[in-house]
User: What shape does this take?
Amino acid sequence: MTKTNSRESQHPIDPLFLDRWSPRAFTGEVIDESDLLTILDAAHWAPSSANQQPWRFVYALNGSEDWSKFVDLLVESNQEWAKNASALIYVVSRSFNGDFSEGRKSYTHSFDAGTAWGYLALQARLSGFYAHGMGGIKHEEIHKAFSIPDSYRVEAGVALGRLADKSVLSERNQEREVPSLRKPLSEVAFRGKFIAN
Assistant: This one.
C-alpha cells in the first residue's frame, strides 16, 4: 500500500499517482511557455495505436490576447474557477487514421488522446503544477472558434496552474476541493469475466 495526499492505494504504487489530483484553486500566476511546452512534450510521447498520434493541443496562457476566448469556451461553472489557471488547453483528436488505412475511422483515437492527457497530468505534477481535466466545455463552439475540421473530435479541456488556497473559490467549490478517492480495485478489475456494476 502507498499512502500520500490523504489517499491510500491497495497495492504498492508510486506516490505520484496519488499526488496527482484535479484542484480548482489556482493562483493565476504566469506560466513560462517553455514550462508548458515541456508538459505538452511529455504528453505527446504517449503510446498510440499504429503510431497515429491523433492528439492535438490548442492552448492559451493566462494574460495572453487569446485568454478570454479560451475562458469563454468553458461552461459557466468551469469559467468561475478556471479563469485563474495559468494555462488552458483544449485536447482534440483526429478521428480518422492516416493515409495508409485509406481514411478509415479510428477506433482508438479517443483512447489515445486520453492517454496523452494522463501523461500531461503526470508531467504537470512532476513540474510543480496541477492539471484539471474538464468535460464541461463548449464542444461545438470550440470546433467553430478554431476552424477544426469534422474529422477531428474535441475531447476535453484542461486547466493548468499552481495550487492556491481553496479560499479563492466559491463556497460550493471550497467544499469540493479535496483529492477524490477511488472505488476499490475489485469493482473495476475482473479476472476472467466482466461484471456490470
About this structure: Strands lie at 3-4, 7-8, 55-61, 87-94, 130-134, 152-161. Residues 21-167+180-187 form a domain with the NADH Oxidase fold (CATH 3.40.109.10). The mean pLDDT is 94.
